[in-house]
Amino acid sequence: MTARVGVVTFPGSLDDGDAARAVRVAGAEPVRLWHGDPELHGVDAVVLPGGFSYGDYLRCGAIARFAPVMETIVDAARGGLPVLGICNGFQILCEAHLLPGALTRNQHLHFRNRDQVLRIESVATAWTNAFQPGQEVLIPVKNGEGCYAADPATLDRLEAEGRVVARYLGGNPNGSQRDIAAITNEAGNVVGIMPHPEHAVEALTGPSLDGLGFFTSVLKHLVGAPA
Questions:
Q1: Could you tell me the pTM of the whole model?
Q2: Is 110 a catalytic residue?
């Protein structure tokens, strides 16, 4: 049976279409989810896409965190549902307290858009098991508020527990502490990543195919998950 991966659309989402296409390219069925509908319609995993949910008013992700669909997603994620937050989706996961820390304004105060090299630090998550530890990948980054920040104790805990999923190489585009580009929760089913793997799944439009591994990873995870 084909896995069904939900892609949420919030007012201001920009990359929901790209995320749905990446899900399809990976071999799953994308299911479009609406922010105002709390039902997940039987999906096996969820992607929170990039963009500017609710116009980034108040604070990035701060309003989206209260959307009806997010109440359901938070409960399901705590029960093991795989959830990937990309860029604004990462911000939403932090606002919803599914991931620690926060995403703040880029230290240089400029929007940064470029192809970015990352090093995969953890392959023990639902979204990175298709990679090799230490593998370098090339994925676009585009953000104005992508600087990951947390208190020293939280950063030390993430490091000690192997929950830093990816780091920036070849220059930090936003000033994220300890060059952190992606993190995971304790269970490994929730991952937030600031760069955009959905923009690196096809040779025609991406700088590489390296982003596809995030989406094939969750399919591999679902096959091995208990029924």
A1: 0.96
A2: no
